[in-house]
Write a structure and sequence with these properties.
With about 250 residues, this protein is an alpha/beta fold. The protein has nine helices and ten strands. Strands 1, 2, 3, 4, 5, 6, 7, 8, 9 and 10 form a ten-stranded mixed β-sheet that branches. The N and C termini lie far apart (about 50 Å). The N terminus is likely disordered.
Length: about 250
Amino acid sequence: MKYRYLLIFVISFIVTTGSIQAREVKLATTDWAPYFSDTLPEHGFFSAITDAAFKAVGHETNLTFLPWQRTLILAERGEYDGIMAAYYSDERAEVFHYSNIVYTDSVVLFAKKGFKPSKYTNLKDLVNFSIAVGTGWVYSPEFDSATYLRKEYAPNQIVNIRKLFYGRVDLMAASETVFQYEVSQHRSFEMDDFVKLDPPLAQNDLFLIFSKQLPDSVTLMNDFNRGLEIIKQNGELEKILNRFRM
């Protein structure tokens, strides 16, 4: 009889955690407040969601902040289990497994106040303007492949905001949430200094991505997906978003 109960316990454990042995999941990312940052409480709301999802299935997370290009290179090699977090691209999908959707982000073009036009019909309307973008960032398939656009690259968002504010570029492509947050954190800027062009470049889903170089990457992805569903069902995800006023 005791063996029967032991078997039931083991099966229940596997179903709950998705793996026999829980372990530390090593993730890398870059500062991208308010989603995640080394300076934010709990490293930001997206990090809190990730921690809670992995904890729900028995894993602990270890998060390292690096420049974005280095994050991509090291995670692709398998030196980290995965990246928190990323948009989808076909190129990345060749080397990473994608989790279920964690959050959806609006990507837009910003300009200095007074910029004309305030709307565009297609990307070719923007060929005469310089556009600040982040090195290694994905925005939308159409925008990323538009080699006819004058894109100027920088390693982080605040550098690009400064370039836009001081007139060194005409436009900036960015997450609307991140742009608003970064502007709010610097006394030199106000949102009234900028305008948003219509339409948005994209509505991009955010995922965790796991290196295909690692033998248990599919298991980790499935574990995370299972944990994410658990915290959705038990209300913890909603509590995290409310806690961070998202």
